[in-house]
Design goal:
The protein is mainly beta. Helices cover about 5% and strands about 45% of the residues. It is globular.
Length: about 140
């Protein structure tokens, strides 16, 4: 057993996120399971770029209210206690609403090369505004 009392908070890289996003790594991918997990906190308006995961992703929402959107225009509003499963290869994004923060634990299973995430372009202001309006605003 290993008891880890805390992990340092890091600002998420601007080339993968819009706005202020903060990460606390829980587990980096390592053999044999290759699980990667992190607590991710999005300030209002902050969001990931479009991305996908080779083996899918699970998001467990821990605090606040946020949005998760897919390329086909599907958007779900999420809040604390809810879970979203993104299937392998599905291009998606997630983040806070324009007025509320959102925090989640993100979990992915990678491989020997890393966490299996493919990062893409930013979600545009127009795409984000459309997602918000499709869910009734803030």
């Amino acid at each position: 057993m290993e008891h880890i009392t805390s992990t340092p908070t890091a600002k998420a890289p601007a080339e993968r996120f819009t706005g202020d996003v903060y990460l606390n790594m829980i587990e980096a991918p390592a053999s044999p399971a290759h699980l990667a997990s992190a607590l991710v906190r999005f300030t209002p308006g902050a969001r990931t770029n479009w991305h996908s995961h080779a083996n899918g992703q699970i998001l467990y929402i821990t605090d606040g209210v946020g949005l998760v959107g897919t390329r086909d225009g599907n958007v779900v509003r999420v809040s604390a206690g809810q879970i979203v499963k993104c299937p392998p290869g599905e291009e998606h994004w997630h983040g806070g609403t324009d007025t509320t923060l959102m925090a989640h634990i993100a979990m992915v299973v990678g491989d020997a090369e890393g966490d299996g995430t493919t990062w893409l372009e930013p979600v545009t202001a127009e795409q984000y505004a459309h997602a918000l309006s499709s869910q009734g605003g803030s």
